[in-house]
Design brief:
Layout lengths: L2 E2 L16 E5 L15 H6 L1 H7 L3 E4 L27 H13 L3 E6 L9 H8 L12 E2 L22 E3 L5 E3 L14 H17 L3 E4 L41 H13 L1 E2 L3 E4 L19 E2 L2 H5 L4 H16 L6 E3 L8 H4 L8 H6 L9 H10 L9 E5 L20 H5 L43 H4 L6 H15 L8 E3 L6 E6 L9 E6 L5 E2 L6 E4 L14 E2 L3 E5 L13
Parallel strand pairs: 1-9, 2-3, 2-13, 3-4, 4-8, 8-10, 10-11, 12-13
Antiparallel strand pairs: 5-7, 6-7, 14-15, 15-16, 16-20, 17-19, 18-20
Amino acid sequence: MTRSTPQQPTETTDDWWREAVVYQVYVPSFADSDGDGMGDLRGVADRLGHLAGLGVDALWLTPFYPSPWADGGYDVSDYRGVDPRHGTLGDFRDLLARAHGHGLKVIVDIVPNHCSDRHPWFAEALAAEPGSAARDRFHFRDGTGPDGGEPPADWQSKFGGGAWTRTPDGQWYMHIFAAEQPDLNWENPEVAAEFERTLRFWLDLGVDGFRVDVAHGLRKDLAPPLRDTCGNDAAPLNSPPEGDDHPFWDRDGVHEIYRSWRKILDSYEPPRIAVAEAGVSAARLPLYTRPDELHQAFNFFHLRCGWDAASFRRVIDESLAGARSVGTLPTWVLSNHDVVRHATRYGLPEGTDFAEWLASDGHRPAPDHGLGRRRARAALLTLALPGTAYLYQGEELGLPEVADLPADALRDPMWERTGRTHKGRDGCRVPLPWRLRGPSYGFGPGGSWLPQPEGWGAHSAEAQAGVDGSFLELYRTALRLRRGFRGAPGGERLEWLEAGEGELAFRRGGRDGSDGPLECRVNLSGRPVPLPAGAVPLLASEGGPDDPHGPYAGVLPPDTAVWLGRRPGAAPSRDEG
């Protein structure tokens, strides 16, 4: 039986997601409608025109559910509600309807690995006896040592410190992240049933899909005796296809969960989608996107890639091969709410320890902001690749990382859990500037929950709209061109072209499309290089038509990208005929 739901975009195909552009909205920092300094759903709804004008296909909303906010909303106390600081369920329905009216899909976050320690289930577990049904929804274990005063295992939290916290009655519970985020026991049928109800709740409202938080962490091996991990809190990124048998990362049992979820997603008309946040090896990532599991998985290898042509080509080839092995296409991600923004990252020396750099308030080493911005613009190569591009809010404005947030403003749990040595992720979460001036630069009528730096308005949408060569207009043009090439015969194919050392050159698109194939060239070397004779630039990351030393003059400067093609009605070039 399939279910149809109201409020769907009017024009849709079941595989819209294969080459979509999805815009990540970090709800607390996108737009504030009521002046309390915290972003909300009405603020998002009021700015949908920006997203539609940008040319994206969908928005992904980070958690807006009731939460004590120990981890920015990723500690959920009610999976089927809306936190009052973000609005009401009525606000969500209105946002959904207005987004669909703009032709935008809506993807929401789901956080199945852990809940809040304020969730009713966990309160019930703490009040229950060891060995009770209430505790079996989580991972409670007796400690080690003569009096059980040592943790059950040496497992470490991703946020610093141990992954076990002791309760007043002497037992310990597991949390891969903060102590306020107890891990759920996915061996318990109650847990699986509860999340299936949650999926259906949001699907029945009309959402178009889910982003699955910590998708690789749901199943654990807690069979006694618990195995030590030697302090390794991360999934092995070099695992062979058969896996490394880590006790709580990337275990084969997670795939049973996603096969059951896929059946639910496919039972709706049109079918809904899901994308996995799975920090696993390139050999293991395709397992999450097999035809009967999730549709996509985030490609963090592309995000982590250094500014090097050979490295980019290797990651692109491996990503395409892995995704195509299971009949899908890769995703391409440059920034998100968990990493240093790439406009800053690309201006730092290769090998920079970002935690240490943030601890220095962004001074050691000093970033080359001009270089970072230039490379971030050239990274529009990402939008030319086959697959789905995920943009992080403010990326289209060229926002830098705010590395010098004062200590008393930090909200990331990493700060306290690491003994105030790791500032965490707040620097990429500073609320967006919408206007040149005014309270919080247009973020809202009042202040902002994280302080915005002086001059933040210079990056605003107001400052860049209609300005030739601005980040915003570069992204708008790139997305408009991408939409024109998308869906052309052979459009999912990528062909590498001859290029010099330090350069990338590829073609994609059908040879009989009305706009012809798209050719992308990127110069990652330190020297200018000539463009092919007769090439027609459609878009360049630097240099306009009047620049005698830029792409329109047949020269590709360092750290510059260009899209080449033929305009409608133009004759094909010699190698196309």
